[in-house]
User: Fold this.
Amino acid sequence: PPLKRVLTLQDMENVARDVLSYKASAYYSSAADDQTTHTENVRAFSRFFFHPRVLRPVSQCDPSTTILGCKSSLPIFISAAALAKLGHPLGEINITRGAGRTGVIQMVSTNASFSASDIAAARVSPTQPLFFQLYKKREDSEAEKLVKEVEALGYNAIFLTVDAIIAGRRDRDIKAPFVLEDQEKEVTKQQPSVEEPQDEGEDTLGTSGALVAANDVDMTWERTIPWLRSVTNLPIVVKGIQCVADAVLAAEAGVDGILISNHGGRQLEYSLPSIEVLYRLRMQRPDVFQRIEVHVDGGARRGTDILKALCLGATAVGIGRPFLYAQSAYGDAGVVKIVKILEREIVYGMQLLGASSVRDLVPEMVERINWQPE
Ligand code: FNR
Assistant:
């Protein structure tokens, strides 16, 4: 269908389901076990309702913000996703171009189908910000080399993923006969991926076992964070915080931010929905929001979802799957479309909430209800 018929992120997902190969669809949409955390990531937003304020001037409504020192046209960013080429030959490059044209920031995966340098070269201007998502390999020296490389390429922050030390069990993916296209095979050979779905059965270590073995399963607050701090001057964000206690430890460890995330429900099944973790952090430890930037991802599909997270104190909200679907279906135009949809929804929501800037979004504007809407 023509792009103008796509009005919501759900519409985009529906279009993508029709164009994606079975295996790409299984890889992109899958989550751990029965997909409860993934489903609840989305559903949990519906437990939060607004207290909109009226008679406040909103004709000058500005949804822009600053994320880790980088300007962003909206309080969102594109969360890292591996293997974008599975859905479209230009893969991550589509996302880079779409992000550059709309002023939002892309987080590039360690396991992207293009190299960090090809992606940097695809920026629409040399000042377009990019974040880098790091899967730390067991060997410090190997990880250090990668971090220094992306810093030299002009990347603006490092997101250290800590919720995927071993590969999550994604049943739909394991069941799917997942055979990478020849070109993707080349890519994954060079960039072993914890994200690569397992298709070898539980009893064999095989390739997937070897891939997982390359990642550092023994990272610690005491060792890994100071190590990363010592090898880079870039802001550091810990991606994959799933409880209040670890958010507090991150603030104490001296990182610049956290990304509350359960990997889109792809790792530990029954990890709490991300927005619920954010809510608990706001209730129990409001001081953390003063000390570091707090970001969240998982299940955000509407402008109102993003506004709820901002009211609770998040600086920005990451969006994962919708950008994979969009670039698969429409290339970089699809990426632009997603940002435009979210911009319209965010501005509309801010105006009706009585907020003319993201600073006006405060905890008093949102309430968690204990009845479930029909
Ligand atoms: C991911 N995610 C992810 N995270 C990461 O740190 N490194 C990675 O390589 C990937 N790869 C990846 C592939 C695919 C297909 C998906 C769906 C997700 C997790 C991602 O960054 C993010 O946390 C979630 O996708 C956010 O949830 P939503 O917005 O997809 O619901």
